[in-house]
Amino acid sequence: MSLKHACILIIDDDTDVLTAVRLLLKPVVKEVVTEKNPENIRSILAKNTFDLILLDMNFNSSINTGNEGLFWLKKIREFKSDAAVIMITAYGDIDLAVRSLKEGAADFMVKPWHNEVLLNVITEALDKHSKVKTTAFNVERNSIIGKELLGESEIMHEIFYKIEKIAPTDANILILGENGTGKDLIAKAIHQQSLRSAKPYVKVDVGALSENLFESELFGHKKGAFTDAREDRVGRFEAANTGTLFLDEIGNIALHQQSKLLTVLQNRQVTKLGSNQPVDVNIRLICATNVPLFELANESRFRRDLMYRINTVEITVPPLRKRGKDIEVLANHFSKLYSNKYLKPVLELEPKALLKLQQYYFPGNVRELQYIMERAVIMSDGPVLRADELIFSPIESVHEMQQPDELRLSSIEKNTILRVIELHNGNITKAAKELGLTRTALYRRLSKYEI
Q1: How far apart are CA 401 and CA 389, in angstroms?
Q2: Cα dist. 97→46, 79, 112, 341, 383 in Å?
Q3: Distance, CA of 431 to CA of 437 (rounded, Å)
Q4: Which distant-in-sequence residues (6+ apart) come within 8 Å of 176 by Cβ?
Q5: What share of the chain is helix, strand, coil (3-state, %, to 5)?
Q6: CATH classification of the domain holding 31
Q7: Among the listed residues 209, 307, 296, the one whose alpha carbon sits nearest the alpha carbon of residue 265
Q8: What is the pLDDT of residues 289-323, one digit of tens each?
Q9: Which neighbouring-strand residues pair with 203?
Q10: Tell me: the pLDDT tens digits for 193-224?
Q11: Is the pTM of this model over 0.90?
Q12: Final residue belonging to a domain, choices 288, 316, 344
């Protein structure tokens, strides 16, 4: 990571040190935050995400054990911050600083220091820690929900990076995307990497709730509140208290339901049906919808004040047809998954089968690919999945014919390039000649379609 993109927190009870380091770093980094009192670390980390923390080894605090730095280093890790930590130490604290390296600190600086040396130490710590975080993040996200949150395309790496940045915060998240793109997996990933990961994760498909069930399901009810209320019921908001509440298909709820939801989110209190006593709730809210953002911006369909409330940060999950090489990655994943499930040897896709998938529009997205691969594995008799064993759903193919002209033309161009390259066994020069393009023009199109 470069300095100009870094967010850095400096914790030292010496005002002169804070001022000097802030003046040094402010012109060369994205953000600098200073703090004198280490007791405020938890609240700062709950509101902000940092790439690096400069932490003093000694404070005028009630701990007063001589190794405050080690204490607060451990606390930072308990607060689930994955920032690199550089310890600031006086000469007499060198042994403690060395111990801090064993406890996970990235490096230490001895007072007083030369500015150039400090900048070099910070730069090296950021570079090293960035590589470690990338590896750890990829391992962690690949373990989420059956290893189905996968992707090697650039657009998915951007989403993974966004998850990494926003998960440790309490910001409300709105996830946009077509049906079957994996919005629920994104929501689960955010929760699992948040400070609330050990707390409840509650999912509600609010778009499927009837008029009668909406308030009871979300806010709960008291016994006797209505005819079938035979006992007290805890609503989903209360069930998710201290954890994460995921409201799926929020774009499909009626305006009067939106009004009730907005009131709860503003007050952070719910009142059960049949009760006048409000109950405080502390949740991290994640919402998702397949409704395009421009439609949600229409006041006649969705309240704008509620939109601002749920949309502190927005993530748009791309359709599978825009994820390039991820089609192959996911197809191989599902082939392995269902080969194991149905006690078959792992089936490989023949080139024509892979080409067939790459040429398909996938209106049902990842969910449709999953079903296609499961059927193919079940029906296959050999060690290789053939193209004719990949059967696309007639339900989805109706929608395929309705895609916009621009998308159809792009699909035709991409598929033509793929067929010609395969015909010439990957020889770009011959493929470009047959297509009537220069090698440079063909490479531009390969980059465009992530081929």
Answers
A1: 22
A2: 26, 21, 15, 51, 58
A3: 9
A4: 183, 288, 289, 290, 292, 293, 314, 315, 316, 317
A5: 50, 15, 35
A6: 3.40.50.2300
A7: 307
A8: 999 887 887 888 899 999 999 999 999 999 999 99
A9: 246
A10: 999 999 999 999 998 888 778 988 999 888 87
A11: no
A12: 316
In Å, how far from its chain's centre is CA 59? 36
d(CA 359, CA 392): 12
Q: Map tokens 């770093």 to a residue.
A: 25
Q: For residue 89, which phi and psi values (nearest 5 degrees)?
A: -140, 155
- Cis, peptide link before residue 112, omega less than 30° from 0: yes
Opening angle at CA 243, ends 237 and 245, nearest 5: 45
pLDDT digits (tens, 9 = 90+) for 81-132: 788 999 888 765 667 767 778 778 888 888 888 898 899 889 888 888 766 6
Are 25 and 92 found together in one domain?
Answer: yes
d(CA 370, CA 10): 47
Q: Are 264 and 252 in contact (CB under 8 A)?
A: no
Helix (H) or strand (E) segment spanning residue 55: strand 52-56
What are the residue ranges in the chain where pLDDT is below 50?
64, 135-147, 398-402, 405-406
Residue 440's SS3 state is helix
The span from the CA of 185 to the CA of 149, in Å, is 6
**Separation between Cα atoms, residue 377 and residue 403, nearest integer Å:** 29
Terminus-to-terminus CA distance in the chain, angstroms?
28
Same-domain status, 79 and 96: yes
Joined tokens for residue 28: 């060369």
In this structure, which amino acid lies at residue 34? Answer: T
Closest alpha carbon to 236 in 192, 189, 285, 274: 285
Q: What is the pLDDT of residue 132?
A: 61
| Joined tokens for residue 90 | 């006086």
Q: Is residue 289 part of a domain?
A: yes
Domain count, the chain: 3
Contact predicate 362/390, CB 8 Å: no
Q: Is residue 344 within 8 Å of residue 377, measured between CB atoms?
A: yes
Domain harbouring 227, CATH code: 3.40.50.300
The angle formed by the CA atoms of residues 355, 357 and 359, to the nearest 5 degrees, is: 70
Q: Which residues have CB under 8 Å from 23's CB, separation 6+?
A: none
Burial of 184-202, coded b for 16+ CB within 10 Å and e otherwise, reads: bbbbbbbbbbbbbeebbbb
The token duo for 40 is: 């405020």
* Residue 31 bridge partners (DSSP): 7
Domain that holds residue 290: 157-316
In angstroms, the CA 41 to CA 103 distance is: 18
